Amino acid sequence: MDKVDGSKMKKTEYIKNKATKAKNTGLQAIFKLIFSRIMLTVLMLLGQIYLLFILLERMNASNAKWWLYFFNICAAICIVVIINSNENPAFKLMWMLPMSIAPVFGVLLYVFIAANPVRMGQSKGLKRRIDETKPYLQTSEKLKWKMREEKSPISDLSYYIENVNHFPTYTNTEVSYFANGQEKLTDLICEIEKAEKFIFLEYFIINKGYVWDTVLDALKKKAAQGVEVRLMYDGFNSLMALPTKYAKELAPFGIQVREFAPVRPFLSSHQNYRDHRKIVVIDGKVAFNGGINLADEYMNLKERFGYWKDTAVKIKGDAVKSFTAMFLQMWGMSDPANEDYEKYLGALPTELDDKNVGNVSEEKKMLLAETDAASETEALQKTNTNLGYVIPYNDDPCNRQDVAEEVYLDILNKAKDYVWIMTPYLIPENEMITGLCFAAQRGVDVRIIMPHIPDKKIVFDIAHTYYTQLIDAGVKMYEFTPGFVHAKMFLCDDCKAVVGTINLDFRSLYEHFECATFIYDNPVIDKIKEDYLKTFDQCQEFLKEDYKKLPLLNRISGKVFRLFGPLL
Questions:
Q1: Alpha helices (H) along 84-140
Q2: Is there a single domain that holds both residue 300 and residue 241?
Q3: Which residues pair with 542 in a beta bridge?
Q4: Within this chain, do residues 210 and 300 fall inside the same structural domain, yes or no?
């Protein structure tokens, strides 16, 4: 009790101090911004863009006709390449316009984006780490046999995720659900305090404040006790929130830090690919995943867009291994050093390894799987009957496989009664729109909860342009009136759920490094549904006629900027 009261006093004191400082830091903040790395980066980017336009102007002034011929030919070649590429049709359309309207600018921009050696390097490094961890990540043959015997409706999805994404299906896994950031923070600190071997953290956003101070204090204590602590965060943090040399700042405390893709003050297309994941792994026994970053607004200690609605899950059991592997893959993506995987992932499976699986017939596999069935299968059924199946998975811009989108579409296409969705951003491409509309048109109750107070107004304007098409098909649109929804969730037919980091926009589905937890027939489904029902009570349904009531400027903004949806 004293510990809880002390935590509340610390939080209250922190908030009061922030309020007092806020009164006198207005001018300091402006001064700091002017001379900050953010301003330097912006100025250098603007300078490079200005030089590009000067170059284009001089090209137009000198031998303009020949330059125009040259770039028209280049534009035609680029268009042929784009049409024959495997890119999403929306991306193809987006490139066609600048190529047709402004060939010089369009060609230079396309070459700049398409010729991306950094992404090639990322792909090579990540593939190496995936290949190294793959032998540790195999669905048990006995579990596959069990799913076949049950005629499980997720057998094909399980096969797809393992075959394409290289993450297996697990059954011996407990799942806890957090309906807000405060619940997650409290549990996270408790689990960190129990750590004995290692703690891995990977976050898109870490902002200094009460939340990060609390987590960091706990990490420092565990590091001092000899626990291995690794922290990885996206490069935007060092631009907006954390010091450039933060790794050196935390090194004396025994905390290893890596920054993913630091933002450089130069035009670089790889800066589009961000690490949007949120993962915590403790001792390989507990993992956290969801939309909640380590910043005060996520716990509603700081108000930015009204009440911040966010969610997360904690998993305990076998499925933690996949999140451990995800972290190690990203941690070592640009590091040539070897990793001791056995230390974190356990010994290699002995049941059937990668070398043997391809040479064994289906009948033989089943016979092998049935070995000791009287004991092991019975044990599986006794321990896991009420836990269902859990499949952690990820997606990235390197693999050219749209795993995140395919999982969502699989849920929509197989739904019988309902699919309820929470997402902060709605800029879907054609396949997702088709999936949402088709589900609604065949009688499935499809509902989407969006924010009522947005964090990005242009993106929100674009989202509104999709409302009428979805509503016409029978999709019900809701907006969370108390504030901002940051949760990324699907719930289907009282048996399936996805909780993770994946939004319904181009960035999450195609350009970011993302991760999520697919849950089937686990008791936590009931708690997730309960939270949905409570959230619906705080929402207002957006009807078709409501779109006409939006300010004209917002409607125009949405229609114009929708063209650039793949970039937003």
A1: 89-101, 103-114, 117-133
A2: yes
A3: 477
A4: yes
- Distance, first Cα to last Cα, the chain: 47
User: What's the CA gap between 489 and 483, in Å, rounded?
Assistant: 17
Tens of pLDDT along 258-312?
A: 999 887 655 454 556 889 999 999 999 999 999 999 999 999 999 999 999 999 9
Residues 127, 109 share a domain: no
The answer on pLDDT for 85 being more than 90 is no
Report the domain count for the chain: 3
pTM comes to: 0.83
Domain end marker among 345, 370, 395: 370
What are the C-alpha distances in Å from 538 to residues 305, 309, 474, 482? 15, 11, 21, 7
Note whether 113 and 128 are same-domain residues: no
* Distance, CA of 54 to CA of 162 (rounded, Å): 51
Question: CA 551, CA 125: separation in Å to the nearest integer?
Answer: 48
Q: What is the mean pLDDT of residues 72-88?
A: 79
For the beta carbon of residue 30, count every other beta carbon within 10 angstroms: 9
| Least confident span in 6-20, 70-84, 361-375, 477-491 | 361-375
Find where tokens 């009282």 sit: 494
Q: Sort 21 into a burial class: Cβ within 10 Å, 0-12 / 13-18 / 19+.
A: exposed
pLDDT in tens, 116-153: 555 566 778 899 999 999 999 999 888 999 898 888 99
Q: How far is the C-alpha of 564 from the C-alpha of 427, rounded, in Å?
A: 10
Q: Which of 119, 152, 176 is the last residue of a domain?
A: 119
CA separation (Å) from 310 to 54, 295, 424, 522? 46, 12, 10, 21
Domain that holds residue 487: 382-567
Residue 418 β-bridge partners: 445
- What distance in Å separates the CA atoms of residue 132 and residue 224, rounded to the nearest whole number? 31
Q: Give SS3 for 505.
A: coil
Q: What is the pLDDT of residues 374-388, one digit of tens each?
A: 344 444 444 445 899
Residue 14 included in any domain: no
